[in-house]
Amino acid sequence: MGGSGKTSVAKAIYNKVYSSFESNNFIGSVRETAKELNGKITLQERLLSDILKPTKVEVGDADRGIILIKERLGSKKVLVIVDDVDDVDQLTALAIRSDSFGPGSRIIITTRDRHLLELLEVDSIHLTQEMKEKEALELFSWHAFHNPCPDSGFLKLTRRVVTYCGGLPLALEVLGSFLFKGSISHWESTLKKLEKFPDDKIHKILKTSFDALDENQGDIFLHISCF
Description:
The chain is mainly α. 56% of the residues lie in helices and 8% in strands. The protein has two domains: 6-120, Rossmann fold (3-Layer(aba) Sandwich); 133-196. It has a three-stranded parallel beta sheet with strand order 1-2-3, sandwiched between helices. Strand 2, helix 5 and strand 3 (106-111) form a beta-alpha-beta unit. The longest helix is centred in the N-terminal third of the chain and has 14 residues, at 39-52.
């Protein structure tokens, strides 16, 4: 699910272990970048230039880019995180294979598509889980009150918001920041509104999964939702 914390988990791992590698690179927003004109070439150049800096690498052609990645990075112990992938061609363009980089290298891929990972025969798959109530309450409170616990008088309302968010980290963060320093009446009116109209930012992220369906799958999804 969008907003479940895949990118946040990947960033946390990156920040914790990057110093153990000869070179490292976090390639974010792969799905969006790949849609652009020469998007795959942009991704290739970003990977090569970030790892080989201060050298700036221009590949010119996607096929040549794959060869350059294997030649220039094939002996390096690297940490590469490829974030928000939705097509195996994006990984092919970045030469994301177990034998493309030097011994000890680690590759982490975040995606909504489990089948894509199975096609690559990755070593392991980790599914992000919805936050438990205690964790969700703390995350929301940090954004809404800048404390790990709700302010006096807001506990019931906070629990209502957490229940509404269903353990989704993105929703907890967005609504927590929106309600920061708001009055009780403001919180109550916001909750009433959210019951009818979801927050635009949250809705946009969740809708990404629906938009990724083809027309037939989308129709099936809508029929299931209606009936």
